[in-house]
Specification:
This protein is mainly α. The chain has a domain of about 35 residues. It contains two helices and no strands. The two termini are about 35 Å apart.
Length: about 60
Amino acid sequence: MKNFNRKVLDAMLGFAAGVMLSASCWSLLVPAIDLAALQQPENQIPTWFPVAVGFFLGG
């Protein structure tokens, strides 16, 4: 399979990237935001901020 269609490979790569982004969002980021809201009931900072900082530092 040395001569695989480039458009098919691009579509497969795009699909895999979309799956990974949705998995990171729904399985990691949303629960982390919920946990941050529970740990900080006074809402001194937005609950998404620590999660966003961790996400970008990890990236």
